[in-house]
Design a protein that fits this description.
Blueprint lengths: L22 E8 L2 E9 L4 E11 L3 E8 L6 E8 L5 E9 L4 E5 H4 L8 E22 L2 E5 L10 E11 L4 E9 L12 E9 L6 E9 L8 E8 L12 E8 L10 E6 L1
Antiparallel strand pairs: 1-2, 3-8, 4-7, 4-8, 5-6, 5-8, 8-9, 10-11, 11-14, 12-13, 12-15, 15-16
Length: about 270
């Protein structure tokens, strides 16, 4: 009954097999006049979600809210994907027991504030259940954005390490850390992880690239893990000692969704 701003969340618990649909209505005003309104349905607990993100400087952005109905803290990993499906940034947020957090995406990822027009998606993932909702604010008007718990997730290479660079025959031994929220980088019917790798020797002839096949047992039905492998640049028998080059790698999950491309400088 007053103008005090309050924030929080509501948990509804029903006894028996009663089917209840609940929603909340958000409104924006221009002075005393209603400018826009949007309604969101209840948000059942989930362990992952995906929401569309459109952010434009001084024009529009997306707000997200998370609630933790657990009696223990919940850490949610947020990954920002660009329009090509590559990971632009990653951020962890921690909700206390029965806690909540509401932020604009530009607050969670401040680097977005300087991007004139960002078009992508925000994925969210946790080992414990949480609830989430999203709204888009554009020129003083709001719209509901669905949080999809069954979205498509590309695998992400989060780290690349070269354990050995061999001169003759030319060969790169490597390790890559993978995060794949769909847990389908390797499956029971496809334990081999396919990908591509390449070495740019800086000779002006571009990247010497080829296909790779990695043993995906360490990632079988898992959301994260480490893969190891070797790559021999095609047609390159040996390289001089001390030669510097750039090594690149990309992998795909069992559905053919490609990861981000990761590179690192190496010395033979």
């Amino acid at each position: 009954g007053d103008d005090t701003l309050r924030s929080g969340w509501i948990r509804l618990t029903l006894s028996g097999n009663v089917h209840l649909i609940a929603n909340a209505v958000f409104q924006t005003f221009n002075g005393a006049s209603l400018a826009s309104e949007a309604s969101v349905l209840e948000s059942p607990p989930t362990t992952r979600g995906l929401v569309y993100v459109k952010s434009q400087s001084n024009l529009g952005t997306v707000g997200v809210a998370f609630a933790n109905s657990q009696t223990t803290s919940s850490t949610i990993t947020l990954q920002l994907f660009d329009r090509m499906g590559f990971v632009s940034a990653t951020q962890d947020i921690t909700l206390p027991p029965n806690g909540h957090l509401a932020r604009f995406v530009t607050e969670i990822f401040p680097q977005l504030a300087s991007v004139a027009d960002f078009d992508g998606a925000l994925s969210m993932h946790s080992s414990t259940a949480f609830s989430a909702l999203a709204l888009r604010l554009s020129s003083g008007k709001i719209a509901t954005l669905p949080v999809d718990s069954n979205g498509m997730y590309r695998p992400s290479i989060t780290a690349l390490r070269v354990t050995r660079a061999q001169r003759s025959p030319a060969q790169v031994n490597f390790e890559i850390d993978i995060t794949d929220f769909d847990s389908d980088a390797a499956t029971a019917s496809a334990t081999t992880v396919q990908g591509s790798a390449g070495v740019d020797f800086g000779d002006g002839n571009g990247v010497d690239a080829g296909n790779i096949s990695l043993d995906g047992t360490a990632l079988l039905n898992k959301a994260s893990g480490t893969l190891r492998g070797t790559f021999q640049p095609p047609g390159v028998s040996s390289v001089p000692s001390g030669l510097q080059a750039a090594f690149y790698i990309v992998i795909a999950d069992a559905a053919g969704n490609e990861s981000n491309v990761v590179g690192i400088l190496i010395q033979f």
